[in-house]
Amino acid sequence: MSEKEPIGVVGAGWVGLVTAACFAELGHRVVVREIVPEKVESLRRGEVPIHEPELPELIQRNTERLIFTTEIDELLDGPRLLFVCVQTPPTYSGDADLSAVQRAVNEIGELEGRALVMKSTVPVGTGRALQREAPDLAYVACPEFLKEGTAVKDFLEPDRVVIGADEDDDWAAAAVESAYEPLGAPIVRTDLSSAEMIKLASNAYLATKISFINEIANVCDEVGADVTEVARGMGLDPRIGARFLNAGLGFGGSCFPKDTQALKILAGNSGYHFQLLNSVIEVNELQKRRVMAKITKHLDSLVGKRVALLGLAFKPDTDDMREASSLVLAARLDGEGATVAAFDPIAQERAAELLPGVQMAGSAMDALEGADAAVLVTEWPEFAQLDWAEVAKRMANPLLVDGRNFLDPKAVRDAGITYEAIGRPSAGDRSVVG
Length: 434
Prior knowledge:
Rossmann fold; six-stranded parallel sheet; disordered C terminus
């Protein structure tokens, strides 16, 4: 068996570390270049700075194949495929900040015989722009489709691998395809602009499904239908599918909010008003605030009341707080005069920096102690195992809003707790619009 070719990775963030560790698992020697010395030192000691299931074990298992460095010369010593995995956050205008991408290109410099493989999410046209700056640049667009919490599995068992390149760079596209070939996934070979658009369009469509089912949930609240049953009936239609039909507090994280906004800005800058996507974004923002009405339906005022938030991260199996619903909820509750307590099994340390006014509890039960209301924000599995009879005793007023439709309504109600959910009828509420 021939030796796998070495691979370079620019950036040791979430995408970069997962990409590097998984390529190492496939047998490649991988050089990871990161500009923060402290991060490089911690990675050399085997300390992973992010929470991602299976990633620490993968890095530990492949220590001999993984090289972490701050030196650009070490990155360029061998690898001809350089995977760019740097952040491209939105600017104040909503456009992507490509300064980290530009810095990586400038530092790499002479790229003859090498290819820049863009994993970072970039606006459509980025590849063309970089090629105009450096006509001899071999450039491949290879967007990532990783989900936080399952990123290692997503990489090693992908639905598809998208590879965009010009005919002149066919050798680079072929080399990238060869690196992914052992995974046995469908390969989508296309042009640069189409590859860049596939990433944005995919996330925008999934965000649209989430906002759509949340709108259906809001109607279900008004007419007495159960959105979980509606989604189940819808999802069995193969044209629709069940995934991303879970009503709740809306989407967050590093991808959906940023990518939907990026596509909206891209369309606007091109002279097109993307009305559907504008609505998707608006629905998502409003959804995070609908919980307030469910609480105030039972409490006349929130002034002086204690409200517990169960979960803070934008989703389970991650410590990512970007665009988390808890940030909006905590701010709204504070604005209404409530005291906010919270517990998250993983994200609490990061959340504390963003929510200085929130009382961080040592456990879910501590957060619920004396609470006048509670909101389940993140569907961590351990919350489903809570002793609801004990919860009812601990709370000053046993009121729970299930923001993810995650819990068993009967079990919660049987414990004497008033249970509210998203698009699911309250006990005894089967009203119908006449």
